[in-house]
Amino acid sequence: MKTLVLVFHPNLEESRVNRAIAEGLEHSDDVIVRRMYDLYPDFKIDVAEEQKHLAAADRIILQFPFYWYSTPALLKQWQDDVLTYGWAFGSTGTQLHGKELLVSTTTGAVGYQRDGEVKYTVEELLRPLQATSNLIGTKYLRPFILNNALAISEEEINAYVEQFKQYITTDQELLGLYE
Ligand SMILES: Cc1cc2nc3c(=O)[nH]c(=O)nc-3n(C[C@H](O)[C@H](O)[C@H](O)COP(=O)(O)O)c2cc1C
Fold this sequence. Notes:
Blueprint: E1 3-7, H1 17-25, E2 31-35, H2 36-39, H3 47-56, E3 59-65, H4 73-82, E4 100-106, H5 122-125, H6 127-136, E5 139-140, E6 144-146, H7 154-168
Parallel strand pairs: 1-2, 1-3, 3-4, 4-5, 4-6
């Protein structure tokens, strides 16, 4: 299985968790890691190159820190530019059909529950990506989420990277529409 990991972190130099994930996966077999902010610091995305990588992958992973209960801006730009009509959606837009899509994010906060500080779960806040997955015909795997990412120790980060490697190399369940 070919896995494509698109890492959208605006400042990987200062990142702890997302950087550890990128470094931990970079030399794995059948895994391609793309550091998107390094590739596109000016937000001018090479659409053909991105579509080529997507078309070659079986499992596509969007890895990012949670920003304003959403994604960093470049991931939104990437969606706008790369997931084009007639390629990713529309009657002839079937290039991504049947591939798996995994959203993996890290949050600074805790309290992502109805009775918590945020009031919504991370899965709920990620619905636009789930709806996008529905539109482009990918299988939306249960998101991989790390809360309280600023507070964890180096040891915990290493354990998390190992857990993530395990997660992305084995079969996973899909997330239900309203889970
Ligand atoms: C501009 C900005 C916005 C952020 N917004 C959120 C947020 O909405 N919710 C949250 O839990 N954490 C938020 N954070 C915290 C990041 O998610 C956290 O720093 C990151 O996941 C840690 O991962 P890293 O070690 O890879 O940088 C934000 C951080 C920044 C810089």
